[in-house]
Amino acid sequence: MMLLRYRGREGMLAWAFHRIAGVAIWAFVVLHVVDIYLVGGNPGAYNELLKIYASPIGRVLEAALGAALLYHALNGLRIILMDFWPALTRWHRELWYVSWGIFVIVGVPVGWIILKPIWEGVPR
Q1: pLDDT category of residue 2 using cuts at 50, 70 and 90
Q2: Close Cβ partners of 101 (under 8 Å, ≥ 6 residues apart)
Q3: For a disulfide at 38, which of 46, 61, 77, 87, Cβ 3.0-4.6 Å?
């Protein structure tokens, strides 16, 4: 397995997390196409799907999607910066940690807002 043979470090982790986030985003897009189809094709099924989205597991998945989108965007910007200014590749590790810092600063409050109704018991 590639993950077990490779030494790891920030570059490899950035690569792996970027792919995982991309697959998660793709899965959401597929689910979104299906649920939009259900609006016209089967409104009852669509309403049931909305109940799942509003449930605690739905909120956790929504927070995970937000995290995947945010990480994928920040890492993509890091890659773009290094593509336009190749000298920055010397600091790819530091840039990765900066992107994680931004991820925490933005992601934690947003995640809290998304997950807060679970603890308060408030429906959406």
Answers
A1: low
A2: none
A3: 46
